[in-house]
Batch of 3 targets.
Target 1
Amino acid sequence: MIELRGVSVQYNGHRVVDSVDLTVGLGEWVGLIGPNGAGKSSLLRAVAGTVAFSGDVYVRGRPTSGMGRRDLARLVAVVQQSPLLPEAMHVVDYVLLGRTPHLSYLAAESDADVAITEAALWDLGIIHLADRPLGSLSGGERQRCVLARALAQDAPILLLDEPTSALDIGHRQQVMDLVADLRRTRGLVILAAMHDLTLAGQYADRLAFIQRGVIEADGPPSEVLTTETISGFAGARVTVMRGPNGEIVVVPRRR
Amino acid sequence: MTAEAPRRISVRSLLVAAVVAFGAIAAAVLIGPVGLDPGRVLLEVLDRLPLVEVESGLSPREAAIVWELRVPRAVLGALVGSTLAMAGAAYQGVFRNPLADPYLLGVAAGAGLGATLAIVTVGSGSLLVPGAAFAGALAAVAATYALGAAGGGRRTGTTLILAGVAVAAFLTAAQTFVQQRNADTIREVYAWILGRLGTTGWADVALVAPYAVISIVVILLHRRLLDVLAVGEDEARTLGVRPERVRAVVVIAATLGTAGAVAAGGLIGFVGIVVPHAVRLIAGSSYRVILPLTVFGGAAFLTIADVIARTAVSPSEIPIGVVTAFVGGPFFVVVLRSSRRDQS
């Protein structure tokens, strides 16, 4: 579904993503892990086409460089790390913005677009918030709105940039469960930059560890989440353990 | 569920806005230094409409006052007010900056320099003055756009606003220089800068109308895309929109309209800020609601301001730019306070 070949991203001559090759297959959830500034967000931005890059990105076998903005937006939906939510905008209007790539330049939304928007609100359990202004919502509710907007976009690929970093542990799990459910029911392909290594190990099928713009490890969580790899996170000291159900747990150790 | 979705404008609010605007225009036609019977004035206006024949009972001189002075001036005020208010709302939308007004990218400074040059060379009565103001306004925004991408950088909202500040400062300095070198015309230049709706009858209306209509229609057509831009340029891109293109089209439309309005009315301030924000506070944040209501709100606001400008110290006139700020400031505070109370 997504294929990156020799993708590099530069900011002011500084290379933050360095000839990355990465493939995300049909129905797969790939987690991007790595320390702050490793290039996770830039890599996602290259796939979304919101940053200039060299190399090739293929989505469904087609190079994104030859696609129009709207064509790409129909295939790839993005949940940004800290999206801008206009305080006075109402939830339903915000989620309806997800229909933008399906509308021509000066067209208005049809009833079908409104129906798709309402379905997205139902799926995320926020239909009761439809007429509330975004500024009145809690952090967890806001994150659901952003996800609903991405769902309304009706794209087969979902890029998530640290979608849970502002949430508490319970809301993190809720969002992750939601994404897992949506992925199953809607057959989404997911490429997500993730900070919480334990959650990354539990939810993603595969993890790609990126450091200084280079992918250092790529494989199932049990192979990637090792004490050695994680020491790449600014020298972090951790123990990787198994929970009661065999799930991976990354525990920090005090010096 | 969402029959009353906030993005949808209700027919009732549109009707109310239209009634207010036409009421203001009617007041402007009825009120003037020469006391005319209101009923006869209305009949006279009716008589001028196509397919209507009524006898108003006004003398030819009185009829001329109504049809050659008051009506065109009221229509001009409505057109200029709508255009400036829409341009302000459009700029606030594409730059996501609540302090943006139609003069953000240097229109005022460019028009000021153009008008000053024309006044000192051929005099303030010349038809060249509005032409020079118009050309100066467009040239200033073109310079801002060119400068906004200078140095190979990406043209973002911020670089454009900064370029606008630089261009405006430069042109204002040039205008001040020219003005100081020609002290004999300083009064005329000053009067032009403070704004005054023309009294040359339908000629001014004909001058402004094409730019006003094009500008208002183009901005109205972009109302949904302005809502998309509200979530930021990056997000808009991931939704398949090219923010640079939307911004360029909307800015060109708003600039054309503003240049036309400035050519006819001088630098009338405050309309472009106060009207869209008052509409926002009353009716919500979606541009699909703000923009249609702003068309009527701008017309009503400036028409009433002009009535005050004409009558407050009659028979002389207050510059309309003074009235818009003097009346608009307190009016805005009232709207701000009452909307805060509603929310708490």
Note: The CA atoms of residues 212 and 225 of chain A lie 18 Å apart.
Target 2
Amino acid sequence: MATRQYATFEVEGALFGIGVEHVQEVLSFSEYTTVPLAPATIGGLFNLRGQVIAAVDLRVRLGLPRHAMDGPVMNVILRGDEEPVSLLVDRIGEVIELDADQFEPPPDTLAGPARELVLGTFKVGDRLMLALDVDAAVDTNAPTAA
Amino acid sequence: MEDFGEIVQEFLVESHENLDQLDSDLVTLERDPQSRELLSSIFRTIHTIKGTSGFLAFGRLETLAHAGESLLSRLRDGVQPVTQETISTLLAMLDGVRALLATIEETGAEGDVPVEEIIARVNRQIAAAKPAAAKPAAAKPSAGKASRGKAVKTSRKAVKTTAPAETAPAEASAAAPHDAAEPDARRPIGELLVEGGGAVDTDVNWALQKQNAGDERPLGSILLDEGKTNTGAVNEALAAQGRRAVADSSIRVDVDLLDALMNLVGELVLVRNQLVRAADEADDPVIVRTTQRLNLITSELQEGIMKTRMQPIEQLWMKLPRVVRDLSNACGKQVKVRMVGAETELDRSLLEAVKDPLTHLVRNAVDHGIEDLSQRAAAGKPAEGVLTLRAYHESGHVTVEVTDDGSGINVEKVRAKAVERGVVGADEAARMEPREVMMQVFQPGFSTADQVTNVSGRGVGMDVVKTNIERIGGAIDVESTLGEGTTWRLTIPLTLAIIQALTIESGGERYVVPQVAVHELVYIDGAQTRIEYVSGAPVYRLRGKLLPLVRLDTALGRPTSSGDEGVYIVVLQGDGRRFGVVVDRVLNTEEVVVKALTARFKELGVYAGATILGDGKVALILDVASLARRSRLSPASERAVEAEEPATPVGGAVDRLLITTVGARRVAIPLDTVTRLEEFAADKLEWVGNREVVQYRGRILPLVRLSALLGVGMAEQGEAVSAVVYTQAGRSVALVVDTIVDIVESSADERGELDDDGLIGSTVVAQRVTELLDVRRAILAADPHFYTESDSALVEA
């Protein structure tokens, strides 16, 4: 059976997952530079070993209040098409291996901005993991519900 | 097969270089049809291309080059004269070769690029000159085949030897002299040896065969090793080959490798900046010394790496005579291209970025700038127009000028056009300075041409030129004298990767402004220097002229972080206008490594990039042109400003400034009032009351430490202190600085003149913001009676 590894993380208590092949690294960082006039989904810029990385606040993408950015925030750094981009999340979870046949389309009850970002769901123990659409999640030019 | 691909790659690179040279050579030949050297050189290059393409089995390319070679051989042998038509045909042949090479590069094969039409055209040229022309043309191929093997070998040498010539300052029409030196440079060593009597030709042929059989030693070495010649003869022959030594001492390096090195050096500069900061705090002499050395080495390394990426601008210019020729022929004009400073070097990535804007300016100058023959005759000008390309280095930048001696741009016409297009109101337009009016030509869709031609205005307008130049951190400017001509001036940074920048703070965040745009800094204390409001718009009275202001916090859509007191104005020049940006604090100037900003922020337009500061935090680089547009006043306040504006005298006097350091700041002191520069031993300094003094020439000299006066930290007390001594009417005072750096010349209108009431302006000297000392105030701090005493003394006496 085809299995796939997912890196998981939490935002506002909900469990999300991204295929590990998209993930470059995960790290906590606290020094961000705000970008005035930028879309609200941009949490800030930071220096990753000499590279300037834009951090997209997943909370804002999901229509939630933004991260305070006054202390350490967890970054899931994704290999972008042209440059890495970071997703700001609440908490990092484990890397889990899931069978492709456990995949289910997003439930009809899932509404709001999250609906656009979720490809489908997996059952992980007694929880539901939402598989995130990477491209949609980091699309900072999309209109936000927030 | 791998090897074969490499050969093709090398062939492509060399041929591309050769083609550019050929373009320029052919245009030169048209002006100087008698130049046999030039003809021979062109012939040889085509011959090489033909030979190599045959060797690599590019049949169509070989046929095309062969046709060109046939025509060239007739020109060379004087069978047929050089005419405008033959040159056009040969240029068309080159274009065909170029198209074929492009296809080969893309697909690895020749594809179906149509060459038959060009070949037919070449043959028509041959036939037109002499109907029975078929014979000499047909006789050529065998000779071509015979020398094919050699052609492959010499092609590399031929390309390399042109490189030093390119760096020579050259006018296009003067290209012939350096070509004259080339026949020797391109001649095989064996031939030279035989000619000089150093070897016999049978031995040379034998050695050549060895080489062909796979012996990798140079020909000279083979002959030497076998005792067929002597060292002296080989050296002589090598010397005769002239530039060979240069060719052998240079190598081709992959641009990606250079880019990677450049990035690494960028990182190193960052680490250096961080370490310098840490060492300042560490207070450990060993670390400080080591850091200083690292600092020096880093700077040298950075310079060295940057040099490897530098290329003479001639690389770009070489293509332009051809552009001018084709265009002037199409417009029925005569235009000569002059080049000054072709050896001026700039970073290759910038060279690429400047290519299109420059080409556009040149096309525009030929099409709209230079008049047609009848107009020139009527104006009493020579029939042939002159287009001058000029490049030079100026204070860390490269300036490239495109000048024509045409009819010039009519400022009033531009003014009228701007009003007609509704860009500015009639009142406003009438008040605009000529310089500002001229900037209107960079507005999208602007044209003063009475008739639109199909030559310029093909997609790119002056606005695009301007955008492209600004994108690389450059600026464009135009100057024109009606009836005499127009000069377009591009100011381009030397390199894209590392810039001098001023770091400022607004709303608790740091931002970076490219130093090139910074003119001066003004501190607003709210009393002597104040922000004023005209129709609600903030302005500052800078030497009597009202300067429109932008509050950085407001411009960035952030809450107002400070009032009108205790803030700084950074006076900037951008988008053709001068304006001030109000910031909370001015921090420092340093070299920063420019990082491209993610595409997400491109449309914001406010940022030109990002950088990483000494402490590792990311800072945004502000886009000066975009801020300038925000500083545009409303028409109402513009009028109000105008009404208040007194006439401003234009100063142009050149002053000499003494540059010193005080703490981390650079302070300039006008030199004309300075009496002497002195060093005093630190243990000679004494205190009298609360005043520091030193015995000097039998008198007591009061000292004032500028560090105390300017409120900056005092540098480590050394064994001696540097002082600037003023003497007037028998009284002397000394101003103590940390170090004396330099004496520079600065024109008075480039900087703030100091008001007597104590305004401290600043200027940019050698890329660094330098504060101008209010000498009077400093002297009064040392000796309150310095100026008055002499007068009162007279009264009392």
Note: Chain B is about 45% helix and 25% strand.
Target 3
Amino acid sequence: MPQIVETFAVETQGIGRVDFTKTVERSTSNVATSPLRQTSVWTSASYVLPVGPYPWYYIAVWPLPQENGTWAYPASTIMETYNNVAVSITKNALVGAALVRFASLADYYILNIAEYFPRLFGYGKVVINLTTGISTRPGSVYGLLFGFWTGGITERVTINVHGLVWDLTPPWMT
Amino acid sequence: MPIVETYPVVVEGIGRVDYSNAVEITTEPVITSWQNVFTFSELVAPIPAGGSLAVNMPIPSDLVVIIYDYFASIPANRLIRLVVAMVDPAGPVITVLDELAYQTVSIHLLRGKTFVGSIRYTLYNYAATPETGMRIGAAGIYTTEDQFTLHISP
């Protein structure tokens, strides 16, 4: 089949940000996700934790992939996007949870939260669905803040964070 | 002053222009940089017994916010109501969502709603005591008015 080559003009706007939307608008379907550029990522854990006397709070953080192949808590330019956050407990007790961002590792050590993403309460579990997702910012540490209001002593707790990991973030997105 | 780049795009198949060869990185709509992510989280309190409280989330003047997720939650299993409205300083207040639920209102739209100006959350408390623990939230994306407005190059 012969190949036809078209040429388009693409305007650059702002600083370091190429705006392709004007010329490719017709072809951008919102289901056109290339499997080669995305991979599922998750944190799934289950613990038996002290949960009382109430309220009892925890912050769980997880290491993130670095450009050199190692893992560390501060995000690199390898971006993760979190779409689903869930906390559950083996009791129909009040649970609160939020995804949070620390501006740096030092801020995490002193528990200085820079940003709270939507916080929810529930009985037995909390599920936070984020349609467009929360993307990691280079240098920041991401964690799950969760707490319980129960008269129990210890309970089994499960946490789940699901999303996508992208290879190196395009430079205009860093 | 815009800089203009040109690049070739290969056509494959029948009746289907495949732009993916040249623009594959940029046509990925799920990649949202932290710079484009809009989130809002706030404690709204106290909401008087049997009353309501409204909160405006301002949007910077040159930006458009597209919100997919709407949240309101209290630390008790009581009835609450969330009303979300578009507030345009030059126009009417238009209700976008109005939902009742026990403890948590959590709404997820496959196609986000677009807001310019500001977003108003009105929270209702049906209990006989003031509500002091109402958390509200929103999540979506920022874009610029220029990008939001449809442009088709000749």
Note: Chain B has one domain: 30-148.
